[in-house]
Design goal:
The complex is a heterodimer. Chain A has 5 helices and 9 strands, in the order E-E-H-E-E-E-H-H-E-H-E-E-H-E. By secondary structure, chain A is of the alpha+beta class.
Chain lengths: ~220, ~150
């Protein structure tokens, strides 16, 4: 029942009503970058990297949470979109303390790759106090480096909605926001077992498998 | 910590009541220590991290061990323009602590908070539940003496 016709980047596409722009584009080989999107989970639309231009819309819209509509004309790579994405990535880099230069896992960091794809240089914005948290190795399976966290909440959501463990939450507010466990404690094995589902979802190097372990597809850490 | 609290109906109902429960616990204990929150987690079936998350979002539910009297100074623009910084400086001189700290004797905690809705009396602060407006750096010592 592909009954909604729309135009994405000049390509005529027919999809089922209720599909999001992101899904419609992906089904037809058009890639839109995302950071906070988890496939088959409710979209939150908080990272804004997936914004696209919809003709007739006053603002850019998040493609991960905007459903398609009849006759929609979408541009996923217009100059306006590229300019917006560039600033969005730049803002995230600003709050993301620490250099990719010394990070041997930078190639796995979606933010790092986006920054290089979109030619985002060193961020222009100044911050009053850098968001810095020491790396945590309290857990034998997971290394947590919250300085690299971009607060996309994918770990929080995957822990609650996929693993059904509810170990992580966002604490504090505004610039001080941070992913917390328990009473803002270290992520020990007492609070978190080794399901590793969050590892698979973290788009940056904030959560990584400890050396000797690797995150497998499907979540388990071995 | 109880896992999977999200799914059970009682946890969902308790989530609705969480804010008032936190307020009540704070009124009873004067602070929201780990012990207080852990027992609340057990009672409600909600994970501790979620309770901590809600409580740290609100400046009126201080998590850290708070002093007997909590001074909340408005840090928003109107108060700042009317020399709230001078007031903070004066408090620092009187008590020797900065916002976010508690005096050694536990008599006062100072916190910088968002707008407290008293812009007409800027700069303003609250000590516990009482509002003090039109502050001057010179008048701080007098106010603090009464606590």
């Amino acid at each position: 029942m592909d009954n909604v016709k729309l135009l994405i980047d000049g390509k005529s596409i027919k999809v089922r009503g209720g599909t999001t722009i992101l899904e419609a584009a992906a089904a037809h080989g058009i890639t839109i970058p995302t950071l906070c999107h988890i496939k088959n989970q409710l979209p939150t639309g908080i990272c804004r990297v997936c914004v696209v231009e919809v003709e007739g819309s006053r603002t850019l819209v998040g493609s991960c949470h905007t459903p398609v509509s009849q006759g929609m004309v979408v541009h996923t790579r217009s100059p306006k979109v590229i300019a917006a994405r560039r600033v969005i990535v730049e803002l995230m880099l600003t709050a993301h303390t620490g250099d990719c230069v010394n990070d041997t896992n930078a190639e796995n960091c979606v933010l790092h790759n986006l920054a290089s794809d979109y030619e985002v240089g060193a961020p222009r914005f100044n911050v009053r106090t850098p968001r810095f948290y020491p790396a945590e190795e309290a857990n034998p399976y997971i290394i947590r480096n919250l300085s690299k966290c971009i607060l996309c909440r994918k770990c929080v959501r995957s822990c609650a909605d996929i693993a059904h463990k509810n170990v992580l939450s966002i604490g504090y507010r505004g610039f001080r926001s941070k992913v917390v466990t328990g009473y803002d404690e270290a992520l020990t094995t007492e609070a978190c077992r080794d399901c590793g589902i969050c590892l698979e979802h973290c788009p940056t190097g904030a959560l990584s498998a400890a050396p000797g372990f690797k995150a497998l597809k499907g979540g388990a850490v071995r | 910590m109880s896992a999977a609290g999200k799914g059970t109906p009682s946890a969902a109902a308790n989530r609705k009541e969480l804010l008032s429960a936190l307020k009540e616990e704070f009124g009873k204990n004067g602070s929201l220590s780990k012990t207080v929150m852990t027992s609340l987690a057990e009672k409600t079936g909600l994970p501790l991290n979620e309770i901590y998350s809600v409580s740290t979002f609100y400046s009126y539910l201080p998590v850290a061990t708070a002093g007997k009297n909590i001074i909340r100074i408005c840090g928003c623009l109107p108060c700042d323009m009317k020399d709230a910084r001078g007031v903070v400086g004066s408090i620092k001189k009187e008590l020797g602590i900065e916002p976010g700290q508690t005096t050694a004797d536990g008599r006062f905690s100072v916190e910088q908070v968002g707008c407290i809705g008293a812009c007409d009396q800027a700069p303003a602060m609250m000590i516990n539940d009482r509002l003090y407006g039109n502050l001057t750096p010179a008048g701080i010592a007098e106010i603090l003496k009464s606590y």
